Amino acid sequence: MKNLQEKLKNIFTEKEDEPQYDPQMFGAMVVGVIFTAGLLFWILWTALVYQGGIFGKISVLWLVLSGQKKWSELVPAGLPVSVSVFSGWLANLVATIVIFAIVAFLYYFYQKRFSARDKNELQ
Questions:
Q1: Looking at the domain assignment, is residue 2 inside a domain?
Q2: End-to-end CA distance of the chain
Q3: Each residue of 11-45: pLDDT tens digit?
Q4: Rounded distance, CA 41 to CA 62, Å?
Q5: Which of 8, 20, 38, 56 could form a Cys-Cys staple with 52, CB 3.0–4.6 A?
Q6: Is there a contact between 59 and 67 (Cβ–Cβ < 8 Å)?
Q7: Domain contains 74
Q8: Taken in order 39, 45, 48, 54, is the CA torsion positive or negative?
């Protein structure tokens, strides 16, 4: 019985060499991860899915530029472009640019960080 009491006591006591975690930092990390996942989902959804996505618009634009389709076939006469196959093109384009900017920033950041780390390891 005394052994069981010691085990239960050891569960709730802190050891000197254990790292201390701040609950506020942990909460901020959880909120940050949820926010980042939501932002990533929103950006990718806007670029790839919203009103046909960027690839749908690129393929239709390629058909027009290659002469296989006419612009008048894709955009009904008298109607704005926003009701054609090109609806949502601005949101798709902006989201795609944001994705490329994020990837370029991350590439630059990690190249700079890891090249500095590798130089320090060689010395």
A1: no
A2: 57
A3: 777 666 666 777 888 899 999 999 999 999 999 99
A4: 27
A5: 56
A6: no
A7: yes
A8: negative
Each as own residue / partner, the long-range contacts of residues 53-62 (CB below 8 Å, 24 or more positions apart, any chain) are 53/92, 54/92, 54/93, 54/95, 54/96, 56/85, 57/85, 57/86, 57/89, 57/92, 60/85, 60/86, 61/86
Name all contacts of 94-98 with Cβ < 8 Å and 24+ positions apart.
94/46, 95/43, 95/44, 95/46, 95/47, 95/50, 95/54, 96/47, 96/54, 98/43
The answer to whether residue 86 is domain-embedded is yes
Range of the domain at 94: 32-122
Q: Is 113 exposed, middle or buried (0-12, 13-18, 19+ CB in 10 A)?
A: exposed
